[in-house]
Amino acid sequence: MRIYLAGPDVFLPDAAAIAAAKKEICARHGVTGVFPLDPIEDAAATAAPQRFMKIYLWNEAHIRSCDALVANLTPFRGPSADAGTVFELGFMRALGRPVFGYANAAANFRDRTLAFLGEAARPRREPDEWEDAEGLHLENFGLQDNLMIDGGILASGGRIITRAVPEALRWSDLSAFEECIAALASARQN
Amino acid sequence: MRIYLAGPDVFLPDAAAIAAAKKEICARHGVTGVFPLDPIEDAAATAAPQRFMKIYLWNEAHIRSCDALVANLTPFRGPSADAGTVFELGFMRALGRPVFGYANAAANFRDRTLAFLGEAARPRREPDEWEDAEGLHLENFGLQDNLMIDGGILASGGRIITRAVPEALRWSDLSAFEECIAALASARQN
């Protein structure tokens, strides 16, 4: 079983070390981790003149080659997960394969958005409902992120694992990641 | 031709008015706009006990029923587009149908991220390369958003239209949206 390892981990200064650690966890559970930066042959990517398009097509080919996806949904420069990761999650869901997510952050989406907006958040007339300074509503379903993310993961048969870890460890702690891998590996055996 | 109208427009206080305005533009170009909040029958959604899951499944059914998608990529509570919109973009790309995006913001992704990080951004040794306070790199391809978004749109045959509009009008100005619809409608006729 090949698992695509989606996440903003690619932006880390030690991306190669995180990739190796994630792959080692996958191997320990009898599955193969595929990191976005892994080398891959793809004719369309070879033909693409622009670097960003090559990377896009490599990632798309990696995802298509995998049986499942595990996304690092730890909030990234705002209340939501990294945009590239979310794109890949939607892509894999549409392929009909299991998608899992984990986040090293315990607060739910509404509370993170409130913290992000600070003074700019305004209460609505309805109890416990909020909007931003421009009147745009804050989703309030007690979910990990925008409902399309939680919904897509659950609809695929996947799970979302969250962990409260010290902020300094949120890009390196892999215990929630390992729980996703263990769930996928054990589902395959049943 | 049915076009799914993805975007954080659903959170606007006047979401119904924006939906009507977008559908009117679609009709003028001879295509049908499908708004996420439009009513739809879906057996799985009917069976789902939770409200958020019903909404997820309705949106997924809407997307599957459409021939193309136009996403409002105007930055939403951070440097990137709304996470739900990005999920839907990846989903439609995986279905192999055209996806277009527009944004009422002219700055590119790197510059928006630099503005978002402010003092927390640090220059790297390489010229014109930046990282955040935790060392995570800032994508620097001159794109509209994370490369998966731009790449997915271009790989699908779509386009990204950006417009510098006054900030107060960024949720209501539909000229970039109309340019996407016109491009889709005219491609269908050729």
UniProtKB/TrEMBL annotation, chains A, B:
It comes from the Bacteria. SUPFAM superfamilies: N-(deoxy)ribosyltransferase-like. One of its GO terms (molecular function) is 5-hydroxymethyl-dUMP N-hydrolase activity. Keywords: Transferase. Pfam families: Nuc_deoxyrib_tr. InterPro entries: 2'-dNMP_N-hydrolase, Nucleoside_deoxyribTrfase. GO terms for biological process: deoxyribonucleoside monophosphate catabolic process. This is Nucleoside 2-deoxyribosyltransferase. The lineage of its organism: Bacteria, Pseudomonadati, Pseudomonadota, Alphaproteobacteria, Acetobacterales.
